[in-house]
Write a structure and sequence with these properties.
- The protein is mainly beta.
- It has one domain.
- It is about 10% helix and about 30% strand.
- The protein has a three-stranded antiparallel sheet with strand order 3-4-5, with helices on one face. A two-stranded antiparallel ribbon has the order 1-2.
- The longest helix has 8 residues.
- It is globular and about 35 Å long.
- It starts with 5 loop residues before the first helix and ends in a 12-residue tail after the last strand.
Length: about 90
């Protein structure tokens, strides 16, 4: 709820540079860029349209949780994907 709830948080976390007027305000300071993702066979998808970041939480030995932002929405999504995919990693300091 810190950023106004799930439905509003994505817009506040997105930077500029998103497809189809999907830019955010970056009022959170997160500056989420639309880096897309790499599929399990090495091709890249949705660069400019989606930003996905791995969570530190695994579901099992081959799947982990991620969070994502999309050009089409102002919310933050949660997904479960194979670790064969490549998503962005965000390092945060104290």
């Amino acid at each position: 709820d810190y950023l106004g709830g799930k439905a509003a948080a994505g817009t506040k976390m997105k930077s500029t540079g998103w497809d189809s007027n999907g830019n955010g305000t970056n009022s959170s300071g997160f500056a989420g860029f639309p880096g897309g993702y790499r599929g399990s066979f090495g091709s890249f998808y949705n660069v400019g349209g989606d930003g996905s970041w791995w969570s530190a939480t695994e579901n099992n030995s081959s799947n982990a949780w991620n969070r994502y932002l999309g050009y089409y929405s102002g919310d933050v999504g949660r997904g479960l994907n194979s670790e064969q995919y490549a998503f962005s990693v965000r390092c945060l300091g104290d």
